[in-house]
Design goal:
The protein is mainly alpha-helical. The protein has 3 helices and no strands.
Amino acid sequence: MSRSRLGASILALAFGGLLLAPIAVHAQTEGMQRRDDRRDDRGAARDVKQQGREAGRDAKEECKDAGGNRADCRKEKRATKKHARKAAHDVKKSD
């Protein structure tokens, strides 16, 4: 009888401890919200810049295929990437 009481009390303490344990909750404070928003903005800006790099490569390749000289093709690629950087900045700094 003593063993069953001991076993029962151990089980009761174990399950009671589980009931009293804090439940994991993701409480979002304002600071955490802002940090998440900035992270999302940086990710979106990164995607825009990557698309700009790809567009710049494509523009340079098209220019070279059309018979343009290297300097003009390089300027076109540079301008495409510049516009992408500006667009990424606008995405990052928009409210």
